[in-house]
Every structure is written in C-alpha cells, then in structure tokens.
Amino acid sequence: MTRFLNRFLWPLLGAIFVTYILACIFQTQRVISLLQDSGGDVSFGERLSMTFYDLRHLSMLYLPFISIALTAAMAVSIFLAKKFKGLEIFVYIVAGMTAMMVLLFGMKMFFFDVHLIAGARDGFGLTLQAIAGGFGGKMFYRLRK
Fold this sequence. Notes:
The chain has five helices and no strands. By secondary structure, the chain is mainly α.
C-alpha cells in the first residue's frame, strides 16, 4: 500500500494539481488575450481577478476531467517508461501532453462540437493546454523519484 501511495497516488495528485493550475491560468490568459485583440481593455487587476475566478469555478468541470485523463495516461506511461529506459521523463511529459489533447478533443466531441474550454479553441490555446499537461507529466516523474 505504501508503495502504491508513494509511487503512483501522490505523484498523480501532484501532476493533477500542476496541470489544473497551469491549464486554468493558460486558459484565462488566452481568453483575455483574444479579448484584447478585439479591442477590449483589461487591467492587471482584472486579469488576476478573472484568473482566480476561473481557478475556483472551473474545478467543477475541468478538474474531474483532467483527473481522469491523467490517471489513465500516467498508468500507461509507467509501463512505457519501463520500455524506454533513460527516456522516462520524456515518456511522462508526452503522456501528460497527450492526455490533455485527447481530453480536449473528447470534450468537444461529446459536448455537441462545442469547446467547453474557451482558451483552447485555436491551435495556440490547444498548445498551451498540452504544455500544462506536459508540466503535469514532469511533476509525476519528479515525485516518483
């Protein structure tokens, strides 16, 4: 039981936390950036306020999906990392990035072709979400050591 906690559950929770925090921040800032591109004016205080609002309120929608996606991806990546000795960190990073991409495209497909995460509606936004997943994968790797 201790091995399971130390080698999977705690690293997974760390990965989920990092991924969720970064994904929310990236999502919010991407939406604000698009708003400013269309002529809106957003102050730094409003940026912070919107970011904290999204961190709090997206937890009901986005956090459970991220948790499911990363649990599956990290479980598979443990087996893949054994096959690719010396490249384990890259396996976990790619697994986190892949989990986020599959999650976002899956959400769009299952929710009537609607992007629920507004900051991931274009290629740059999707890339930012994948990067968040990559950092989650790196956290998983670091905490497994």
